[in-house]
Structure formats: C-alpha cells, structure tokens
C-alpha cells in the first residue's frame, strides 16, 4: 500500500510539473505574436512602413509598384486585426496592379 502511495505522489508531481511547463510554453508561443494593422487604402510605401512599425519583419508588395505613392492597398495576405508571428510573411496587394 505504501509503494502505491509513493507512485501516485510521483505521478501527480510529474503531471503538475508538465502542466506548469506547458503553460509557460503556451505563454512563450503567444508572446511573440503581433496584431496586423488595417492598411487598406494606404499607399504601398505607407502600408509597408505601418506594418514594419508594428513589428513585422517580412513585408512585401505585390507587383512592380512597391515604391509608388500613387498606389492604393486593396488587401493584405493576413487579414487586419488577426495575430501572427513577427516573421510571418505579409504580402500587400495594391491597385493598379
């Protein structure tokens, strides 16, 4: 009877440790996520700047008008207000492209 008590206590201690460690890992995974700002209607250069200022490091513009101030952003590959890792690629789609 005494051995089964020790085994039960050991199992409970291990499960508790895993639970606490799992919570820490879950927190760490969400700590590096950022919210995608809404850049619809911005020019391509302004949208890139806003996304980079928000912390995203992998922003590209579709088409040859990446530096043209006469463009209008129609959408991004990640929807506004969603969360993503800072290294997640975000494509900015513009009109007239």
How helical, in percent, are the residues? 40-55%
CATH architecture of the domain at 33-96: 2-Layer Sandwich
Structural class: alpha+beta
Uncertain segments: 5-29
The main sheet orders its strands as 2-5-3
Mean pLDDT, to the nearest integer, reads: 78
Shape: elongated
Largest sheet: 3 strands, mixed
What fold name stands as the CATH topology of the domain at 33-96?
Trypsin Inhibitor V, Chain A
Distance between the termini: 76 Å
**CATH class descriptor of the domain at 33-96:** Alpha Beta
Extended strand count: 5
Number of helices: 2
Q: Helix-strand pattern, N to C?
A: HEHEEEE
Alpha-carbon Rg, integer: 23 Å
Strand % is 15-25%
Give an overview of the whole structure.
Residues 30-96 form the PASTA domain. Keywords: Signal. This is PASTA domain-containing protein. Residues 1-28 form the signal peptide. InterPro entries: PASTA_dom. With 97 residues, the chain is α+β, with helices and mostly antiparallel strands. It has a domain at 33-96: 2-Layer Sandwich (Trypsin Inhibitor V, Chain A). 41% of the residues lie in helices and 21% in strands. The chain contains two helices and five strands. The chain has helices at residues 2-31, 44-53, and strands at residues 33-35, 59-61, 72-76, 83-85, 90-95. A three-stranded mixed sheet has the order 2-5-3, with helices on one face. A two-stranded antiparallel ribbon has the order 1-4. The longest helix is centred in the N-terminal third of the chain and has 30 residues, at 2-31. The termini are far apart.
